[in-house]
Amino acid sequence: MYTNLDTHGIQGVMNVPPQAFNGQTKAVETAIFSQHLNSPVYEHREFELDFGRSVAKNGYLWWYIDAISDDGQNALTLIVFVGSVFSPYYARARRNRLSSPEQHCAFNTILYGPNGQKRWSMTERSSQSLRRSKNHYALGPSELRWNGEALSANVNEWCVPFPRKMIGTIRVKPSAVTSHTILLDELGRHRWNPIAPMARVEVDFPGLNTSWSGDGYVDSNEGNEPLADGFVGWDWTRVRLHDDECAVRYETRPHQSQPKRFALSFDANGGIRETEPTDAKSMRSTNIWRIDRNIPSASGYDDRLERTLEDTPFYARSLISTARHGRHGQGFHESLCMRRFEQSWVQTLLPFRMPRVP
Known about the structure:
The chain is mainly β. 6% of the residues lie in helices and 56% in strands. It contains four helices and 27 strands. β13 (151-158) and β14 form a beta hairpin. The protein is globular.
């Protein structure tokens, strides 16, 4: 189905049902930032949902899933990398030469429970453990598979820093799969794909006494160069409003230029519209590592910080609540500081949370 919109520079946005991506290539609207405006401008490109697509040397590609349980007590994130952007091993390999991203892959699964409970796994592996094709990604004993209607993850990892087996399944059923690609920088070296802004997610990890369902979200990012080459940092948030709308807001901070801001809303059919972005709202820094948190804002949004999920030397993840014109919702916020990530003392700490095996 095509939705012909003409709102703040968005034209001819296309949305398709999930099954339309099963082995087929569809036209896609690709957004680029104007030289003078934050508003994205769309042009036609070809796109394929393809776990096997190539990644540039020193580049990256990841798929991201998050979800919050219906009772608000549990949450998860799953990030699958080809070229792990936060890997100290990949950063070291890039310093002196072009490096293959397939030598630095990771399957990062985090389960958040009530009262601050958390189970974290992120093991880096080389291409010897990687198998991927159009609809399938497998790294070591874990895998992610698309069957044309749903994404299914079979997770078989070890938690760190306290070893415990993490075995379970995550099933994601999108309400629609969008075909939008948005360029995050003016040269198009970094791109964001909001694959399924609204989905239902089922989580089952019997050995960890974790089983729940809730609303979720899927996207993907890719780049032709290291993330630190393109950005000083960024803030990102996505919120599921209770009337079947997902609001996504980005503020990227490129080197030597002003921040880029945009705010998009997606409906349950994959339709998209733009909201006028406003200055980011400063929230309190994280308690331990003092990461600045600035929630990208837009007209009419009232955001509140609810819970800190990750407080790391270069990155913060939080749960937030949002109200807009009497509608309420809950979602995720992320703050990334690449200047911190590039520091040698941070690189020294990371292997304790990101072990590497062949």
